[in-house]
Amino acid sequence: MTRSRRTSVVLGAALSGLVAATVAAAPATAEPADAADLPEQWRSYWVDAFNDGIYTPEQVDELVDDALAINANALIVQVGRRYDCFCNRALYPRTDAGIDPAPYDPLDEVIEAAHAAGLEVHAWVNVGTMWNSATPPTSPDHVFNAHGPSATGADRWLNKRADGTELIGANAYIDPANPAAVDYIVEGIQSIVDEYDVDGINLDYIRYPDHNSSLSHSDWGYSETSIARFQAATGRTDVPEPSDEQFSAWRRDQITNLVRKIYLGIFEVDSTVRLSNDAITYGFGPQSVGSWEQTRTYAEVLQDWKGWLEEGILDTAVAMNYKREWMPDQAQMFDEWNEVLADWQGDRQAVSGPALYLNEIDDSVQQVRDLLVPTDAGNTVAGWSGYAYANPSLTAAAGDAAVKDAERDALAAALTEGDDAPFAEPAAVPSMPWKENPTTGNVAGTLALRDGAALTDVDVTLRPVGHRGEQQTMTTDGSGWFGFVDAAPGTYLVQVDLPDGVVGQPVGAVRVRAGGLADASMTRYVAVPGR
Fold first, then answer.
1. Is the separation of the CB atoms in 529 and 453 below 8 Å?
2. Does pTM surpass 0.70?
3. 103: preceding bond cis by omega (within 30 degrees)
4. Tens-digit pLDDT profile for residues 364-402
5. Which superfamily is assigned to 40-434 in CATH?
6. What are the extents of the domains in the chain?
7. Which CATH superfamily is domain 439-527 in?
8. What letters, b where the CB count within 10 A reaches 16 and e where it falls short, cover 230-248?
9. Half-sphere exposure of 381 (CA within 13 A, CB side)
10. How many Cβ atoms are within 10 Å of 40's Cβ, its own excluded?
């Protein structure tokens, strides 16, 4: 049973660059607003797929109305929970969840309704979580069935802890150091971008898992494939301790490489699509713990979203800034993370995402006001994303459907009604000048032997020829892939640091064009036995 649709005035349509807003009891003379005339400020709900929201067309209609009611301009909609897709045309199999039967396609439905209302749609995909039920998925193609507990060797994509644990209860996690798993993740996300008119991809769980013995290191990354790759890359023969700094850096690099590969993989399909991630903000910010490297984000779950923003392999960090405003320590945590989010954006963007379900409405509105206060450096975050649509307040989280609806309406009123309401006026999704009017280009490629074997863990250097440009060096991943972003236009030498026993021309050339993706793949190498 859904509520009747609220009266709304749609201010434009997404395809013509307009945005939408809902104005309760608006006069008939209300004029549409052009996005070019609106301030830029990200406003979205996270819409999880473990609760109602996209299971039926009626739920989607209600979702869109609720987003318009808070003057939102985007929806982050979970379409990939545990490698099951709330869609029909992706590499990942269709979910077993109780959505309306096919041909109903939740992602299609959301895109059509949201775009008609001027809302962007960002497809939220969980990356590190493989499965979370004692009952396996029905599709034989699902990664848990094909590459989970029944698989062996490199076909086993399960992440593993140092103590040998692979399952935490029913929760299984995917190994980001397994080359085949990485390529499957990238291809699955590319399939969503290729098949659906999404405005963005939002990555969740793009990190190593929780359930660690320390807040300063990760116990995960001990699959046979991961350890073998680490040993091959470093020349070590031991199995490192979880606290081993070299091993921690190597594992962190696996996550960063995956983000880079997703970023350029999306760019290859559609260069206008935004990549965001759900950034971890555990505990106090770096101001209290001593540095970014001392935070649990960087040290324990090995997620370097600060570095991703700096490198440019992430368009928007949407931080999971889940703190209770009514607890002084957590209110401090919230403010500390907002400060660094605002100051670390650089040429990209950062959004603060408070936990609505941990706060009552007054505290959630206060958090909106707090995150919009400029830092000492004069910076502010790019906007707000509320987690989550299903439970918009602490009261809603403990209530039935009617309570949730009432709290959602109350939140909308608190955010939009009154001259001092933080979302009283509509806003446009922040633009991405680095993609809309690019002045740099990108390079990607694979290195392989002539017999097709990947040339892994090899340094590749991009050197500018006769023009100003930054020299960059990357290391090929487990599939022989490498990538560079934000290279100045011009000609570059691509120099390969060949390992012992491999011969061939170590230098190639590539032309970088603004807004382009240059292919620097090379397969000219031969392994010489005995060298």
1. no
2. yes
3. yes
4. 999 999 999 999 999 999 999 999 999 999 999 999 999
5. Glycosidases (3.20.20.80)
6. 40-434, 439-527
7. Immunoglobulins (2.60.40.10)
8. beebeeeeeebebebeebb
9. 30
10. 14
